[in-house]
């Protein structure tokens, strides 16, 4: 752990409860934490609320957001204090959010975008093989669920409209898997973390799909706070998350999410996503397909 984070954690341990010592009769406003479709199930959301309430010493309200755009708007307008979002929204919203903690999957801050198709379709091994499909995207601000494959198509001189027979958004990574597994979509794009965990848990939808290709590594979806949040409260939240593996409630939360820990975040972990975003908005030249998806 970097020295500055060690010092920050040490300082945080001496902080009073995050909402201040305002007296027993003063109602504390809830700490509002937004969650998106990176969460696997409602049980994990309940564990998160219980853990944060214990760690922050006050009421916590979990707000389920239906899209990354909705989550960003709530952070921008001060309707939420923090949220677990995707790396692409973080890159877009750097002006008004700051990194707080990085979930550690297999102890690393990385994940991959997966192209998936039906398990019965054995001849598809590249995005090139998905031409003419009905294709399921997650969210227009999802790195794994939109940005990666769209920039890959740019490398081929294509757009989703010219390459696929049809496309649609599910606004849920789980529903991408369900759409492909059920045959509603021929193929789709999904967060590798979500697909791997669903497969490990014997999800029937996931077991009906297979991986066509895996992307290069990108920064795992981070926890962020709004930039104008009180510094001490930001630090308290960061301390709670980085120390989760040392707390019984925190370990239960991590187990429910199939994560090992939370890591001190580094902005450089999102450089790859920032490059893809620049290609999408036309400020960066297209990059080779081999720099996006690993060879099959």
Task: Summarize the structure in words.
The protein is globular. It has a six-stranded mixed sheet with strand order 2-1-3-12-4-13. A five-stranded mixed sheet has the order 8-7-9-6-10. It folds into two domains: about 5-110 and about 220-265, Periplasmic binding protein-like II (D-Maltodextrin-Binding Protein, domain 2); about 115-215 and about 275-290, 3-Layer(aba) Sandwich (D-Maltodextrin-Binding Protein, domain 2), CATH 3.40.190. It has twelve helices and 13 strands. It is an alpha/beta fold.
Distance between the termini: 35 Å
Compute the number of strand runs. 13
Please name the fourth-level CATH homologous superfamily of the largest domain.
Answer: Periplasmic binding protein-like II
Instruction: Provide the residue-averaged pLDDT.
Output: 91
Strand content: 15-25%
Strand order of the largest sheet: 2-1-3-12-4-13
Return residue spans where pLDDT drops below 50 for at least 5 consecutive residues: 1-18, 20-25
As a percent range, the share of helical residues equals 25-40%
Overall domain count: 2
What is the helix tally?
12
Radius of gyration: 20 Å
């Amino acid at each position: 752990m970097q020295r500055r984070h060690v010092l920050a954690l040490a300082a945080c341990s001496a902080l009073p409860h995050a909402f201040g010592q305002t007296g027993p009769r003063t109602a504390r406003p809830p700490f509002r934490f937004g969650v998106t479709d990176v969460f696997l199930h409602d049980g994990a959301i309940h564990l998160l609320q219980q853990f944060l309430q214990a760690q922050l010493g006050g009421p916590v309200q979990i707000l389920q957001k239906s899209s990354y755009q909705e989550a960003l708007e709530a952070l921008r307008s001060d309707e939420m204090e923090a949220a677990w979002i995707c790396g692409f929204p973080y890159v877009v919203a750097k002006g008004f959010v700051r990194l707080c903690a990085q979930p550690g999957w297999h102890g690393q801050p990385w994940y991959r975008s997966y192209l998936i198709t039906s398990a019965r379709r054995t001849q598809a091994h590249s995005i090139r093989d998905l031409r003419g499909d009905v294709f399921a995207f997650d969210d227009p601000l999802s790195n794994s669920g939109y940005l990666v494959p769209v920039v890959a198509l740019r490398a081929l001189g294509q757009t989703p409209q010219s390459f696929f027979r049809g496309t649609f958004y599910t606004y849920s990574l789980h529903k991408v898997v369900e759409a492909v597994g059920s045959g509603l979509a021929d193929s789709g794009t999904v967060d590798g973390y979500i697909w791997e965990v669903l497969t490990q848990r014997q999800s029937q939808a996931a077991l009906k799909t297979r991986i066509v290709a895996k992307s290069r590594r990108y920064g795992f979806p981070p926890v962020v706070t709004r930039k104008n949040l009180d510094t001490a409260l930001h630090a308290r939240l960061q301390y709670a998350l980085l120390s989760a593996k040392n707390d019984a409630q925190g370990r239960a939360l991590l187990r429910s999410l199939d994560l090992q820990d939370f890591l001190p975040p580094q902005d450089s972990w999102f450089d790859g996503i920032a490059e893809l975003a620049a290609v999408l908005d036309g400020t960066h030249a297209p990059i080779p397909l081999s720099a996006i998806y690993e060879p099959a």
